[in-house]
Amino acid sequence: MEKTNYNTIDEYIGTFAPAMQELLQAIRNTIKKQAPEAKETISYGMPTFKSTENLVHFAAYDHHIGFYPTPSGIQAFQEEICNYKWAKGSVQFPLSEPLPFGLIERMVAYRVKEAKAKFEAKKKVKK
Q1: d(Cα 6, Cα 41) in Å, to the nearest integer?
Q2: Contacts (Cβ under 8 Å, ≥6 apart) of 76
Q3: How far apart, in whole angstroms, are the C-alpha atoms of residue 55 and residue 70?
Q4: How far apart are CA 101 and CA 58, in angstroms?
Q5: Tell me, what DSSP letter sits at residue 39?
Q6: pLDDT (mean) for 49-69
Q7: Cβ neighbours around 74 below 10 Å, total
Q8: Residue 85 pLDDT > 60, yes or no?
């Protein structure tokens, strides 16, 4: 992975070996299934899905996939991620294990619902 200023998710995914491309595309499709209206972009040098705010980011590393559902997304799934390495806003899914696509789906669905609720609350305050 030489280039770091990608313009599209396709461009980002295209920099990896075919097996990793397949995995990244599967993550992308999983996210799109739960957030079909989200805009795909690159933020912080990573594939990002956003609606009224950034929903999730993901990135490939040598030994893991970094998944970034924001601090609230991590907090909401503490019990499910306890066996993974995690931090305030991220979780690392090791490449030595099958990716937990069901967990990724639930985290994305949670973030979509949360972002929508925040947006609706802001609209009510402005009225």
Answers
A1: 9
A2: 107, 110
A3: 7
A4: 13
A5: E
A6: 97
A7: 19
A8: yes
What is the per-residue pLDDT for 127?
58
Is residue 38 within 8 Å of 112, Cβ to Cβ?
Answer: yes
Q: What is the mean pLDDT of residues 45-60?
A: 96
Residues 6+ apart with CB under 8 A from 127: none
User: How many C-beta neighbours within 10 Å does residue 88 have?
Assistant: 8
- In three-state secondary structure terms, 32 is helix
CA distance 64 to 80: 17
CA quadruple 32, 10, 27, 52: dihedral positive or negative? negative
> 108 with 69: CB under 8 angstroms?
yes
pLDDT score of 114 more than 70: yes
- Domains and their CATH numbers in the chain: 9-122 (3.90.1150.200)
Partners of 46 in beta bridges: 43
Residue 45's SS3 state is coil
Of the candidates 58, 41, 59, the one whose C-alpha atom is nearest the C-alpha of residue 50 is 41
Name the token pair of 83: 């066996």
